[in-house]
Specification:
This protein is of the alpha/beta class. The protein has 2 domains: 31-375, TIM Barrel (Alpha-Beta Barrel), CATH 3.20.20; 378-435, no CATH class. Helix content is 46%, strand content 10%. It is built from 16 helices and 12 strands. The chain has helices at residues 37-41, 47-52, 75-92, 101-104, 111-132, 159-178, 201-222, 246-255, 268-273, 278-287, 314-326, 349-375, 377-385, 392-398, 404-414, 425-435, and strands at 31-32, 35-36, 43-46, 96-100, 135-140, 183-186, 192-193, 227-230, 240-241, 262-267, 291-295, 335-337. The strands form 3 sheets. Strands 3-4-5-6-8-10-11-12 form an 8-stranded parallel beta barrel, surrounded by 4 helices. A two-stranded antiparallel sheet has the order 1-2. The longest helix is centred in the last third of the chain and has 27 residues, at 349-375. The protein is globular, with a radius of gyration of 24 Å. The protein starts with 30 loop residues before the first strand and ends with a helix.
């Protein structure tokens, strides 16, 4: 049975194509800077938004039309969704997917029942992976939807919730290993506080670190060699989340002896909610060697919540690819579309339009970033701007050869500072605009 009979396999037709269901820029086999586009992006479809998102928002329920849904959350319905999802990915051409445990299988009345339900669906997922060659980029556990997580999971004031969370993550890690997942993600959906009046801040943060250490221990025990990823988010639903942004998360990991065990999965919408640009968050991770994967989406800057829209902004995708190319690629991570069609786009075919546009936008961003790097204008300007550090007193400072006393003597002898050159900000923006087309 075909669930998208009106859609053929999406193919590359080139920049002049007017076909809305064809790639104009994403050519999976095209080589850019020594890698194919397929290798650069490792695109992944997100199970939760693609298969479970119904278009709801804070002001009303969803209105998505999904003909395959029977209105239940049964195992039988979950198995049908697996078939729908893999048909979608086959026709779209994404080589990877990712999921939360509760996206793919219904939660039971007990942990044992939930695990049994998950096992049934994992068997189907494994069969579809073998049939299609599509792989699992990462798995994760939903430790935020059930009311047991009302006060958090690993940071809950209830020790039983910590124990339940550990058991659920244990199972999700085992399933990820069974499906050949290349990463495992921790998203602390409710790991934070609403008010400090009733919060033992140090105890909760210590418990979170303990949880991650236990996960690392179990990872080694079962032989999972994939990358552990943390996905920062500043707020929503809590007032403050403990993985606020890249800087906060990296400081937490390093101060708790976890810096060598984790990398970060960075999301655009979370970056902007934290008051940062996506480029900043990526660059901060990259300079620490901890940029592991990317949630490829965007938010609406006029709205104050996590809208998870599909990325179509070429400035965003070009900036993203400048950072990724500079660090030599995304490694074992990928570009996961943690993005949903908006409430007004309710037909099944809109899922294809959204993903095609996003994949094309990143392909354009890749080509733009590669062109900028090839011309070397930015590299040359940065080198010139910091030239005073390459010789003389600058080189001595960086080498640790002088202290305050020597620097004082240097300035007393020099007398005054030579004015810095202009930052040329407007010129740089104009240069970037040359490549956006």
């Amino acid at each position: 049975m075909a669930y998208f009979p009106e859609v053929s396999k999406i193919v590359y037709e080139g920049p002049d194509s007017k076909n809305p269901l064809a790639f104009r820029h994403y050519n999976a086999d095209e080589v850019v800077e020594g890698k194919t586009m397929r290798e650069h992006f490792r695109f992944a479809a997100a199970y939760w938004h693609t298969m479970r998102g119904m278009g709801g928002d804070p002001f009303g329920p969803g209105c998505a039309i999904r003909p395959w849904e029977d209105g239940s959350d049964s195992v039988a319905m979950a198995l049908t969704r697996v078939k729908v999802f893999f048909e979608f990915m086959e026709k779209l051409g994404t080589p990877y997917y990712c999921f939360h445990d509760r996206d793919v299988a219904p939660e039971g009345s007990t942990l044992a029942e939930s695990n049994a339900n998950l096992d049934q669906v994992v068997k189907a997922l494994k069969g579809e992976q073998e049939r299609t060659g599509i792989k699992l980029l990462w798995g994760t556990a939903n430790l935020f939807s059930n009311k047991r997580f009302v006060h958090g999971a690993a940071t809950s004031p209830n020790a039983d919730v910590f124990a339940y969370s550990a058991a659920q993550v244990k199972k999700a890690m085992e399933v990820t290993l069974e499906l050949g997942g290349e990463n495992y993600v921790f998203w602390g959906g409710r790991e934070g506080y609403m008010s400090l009046y009733n919060t033992d801040l140090k105890r909760e943060v210590d418990h979170l670190a303990k949880f991650f250490h236990l996960a690392v221990d179990y990872k080694k025990k079962i032989g999972f060699t994939g990358t552990f990823l943390i996905e920062p988010k500043p707020k929503e639903p809590t007032t403050h989340q403990y993985d606020f942004d890249s800087a906060n998360s990296i400081a937490f990991l390093k101060s708790n002896g976890l810096g060598n065990e984790f990398k970060l999965n960075i999301e655009t919408n979370h970056a902007t909610l934290a008051g940062h640009t996506m480029m900043h968050e990526l660059a901060y991770c990259a300079m620490h060697g901890m940029l592991g994967s990317i949630d490829a989406n965007r938010g609406d800057l006029l709205l104050g919540w996590d809208t998870d829209q599909f990325p179509t902004d070429l400035y965003l995708t070009a900036q993203t690819m400048l950072v990724v190319l500079a660090q030599g690629g995304i490694g074992a991570g990928g570009f996961n579309f943690d993005a949903k069609v908006r409430r007004e786009s309710f037909d099944p075919i809109d899922l294809f339009h959204a993903h095609v546009g996003a994949m094309d936008a990143f392909a354009q961003g890749l080509k733009i970033a590669a062109a900028i790097r090839k011309d070397g204008l930015l590299t040359d300007m940065i080198k010139q701007r910091y030239a005073s550090w390459d010789t003389g007193i600058g080189a001595q400072i960086e080498a640790g050869q002088v202290g305050f006393a020597e620097l004082e003597q240097y300035m007393l002898a020099k007398g005054e500072i030579t004015p810095n050159s202009s930052g040329r900000l407007e010129m740089i923006e104009n240069i970037i605009n040359r490549y956006i087309r």
